[in-house]
Amino acid sequence: MKINLKNKAKIEAALKAVNGKADAQTISCVEQLEEITERAERELIGRGVSKKERAGCGVEYVPPGPSNAYKYSYVTTRVILTRGGKDWFLTECSRLEGWPGQREVFRLRVTDIALNQIKRLLTEDLVDADGAAFMDDAARLTAEIRRVDEKNRKIEKLERRAHGAELRVKELRAILSKERSEREAAQRTVARLGGVECLNIK
């Protein structure tokens, strides 16, 4: 299912097919969906997601139930709305049984890129225990690739010095072992972040 909210007739036909005769606690019109998407749009903006990266994000919504004074179960509607480049679409719609006092469900769905933007906003004024700024996955990948290259250069330099007998063998082996261990740790991080092809393994 993917129905543009601008297509009022198709939207309301889809809602009616799901809701049947139920009405009081359901989502039954385009206007209700538009209120949900406007709220989702505000949430995404407030969390630092750029307009370009809002495409592909969405929201799952179920209306709140009646008060606990209501004694019976009821029929309600669950919808998933997804943002395109400009417009919002109804991408899922189903019928649910609700109970008195049931809380509203308003759950944002975000892409990986949008999530990185949200993390960046949340951590922009924070540093880690060592005083370094937090980085998203792309920034970490770049930093770890640079670290691998730096370790390669340092290892090559140490190996040249070893050939020239500038360091005692025992000390050199200890230093090389440490540098190789640190390089392997950085390589594992790069691989985990998806940058295997960027590695310069020697």
What is this structure, in a nutshell?
Helix content is 46%, strand content 16%. With 202 residues, the chain is an alpha+beta fold.
Give the overall silhouette.
Answer: elongated
Q: Gyration radius, to the nearest Å?
A: 27 Å
Tell me the count of domains: 2
What is the CA-CA span between the terminal residues? 51 Å
Q: Please give the share of residues in helix.
A: 40-55%
Which strand order do you get reading across the main beta sheet?
1-4-3-2-5
The tally of strands reads: 5
Count of DSSP-assigned helices: 5
The helix/strand series, from N terminus to C terminus, equals EHHEEEEHHH
Describe this structure in words.
A hairpin with a 4-residue loop joins strand 3 (74-83) and strand 4. It contains five helices and five strands. The protein folds into two domains: 3-121, no CATH class; 137-198. It starts with a strand and ends in a 10-residue tail after the last helix. It has 202 residues and is an alpha+beta fold. The longest helix is centred in the last third of the chain and has 27 residues, at 137-163. A five-stranded antiparallel beta sheet has the order 1-4-3-2-5, with helices on one face.
Topology:
Layout: E1 3-4, H1 8-19, H2 30-46, E2 58-62, E3 74-83, E4 88-98, E5 105-109, H3 112-123, H4 137-163, H5 169-192
Antiparallel strand pairs: 1-4, 2-3, 2-5, 3-4
List keywords for this structure.
alpha+beta
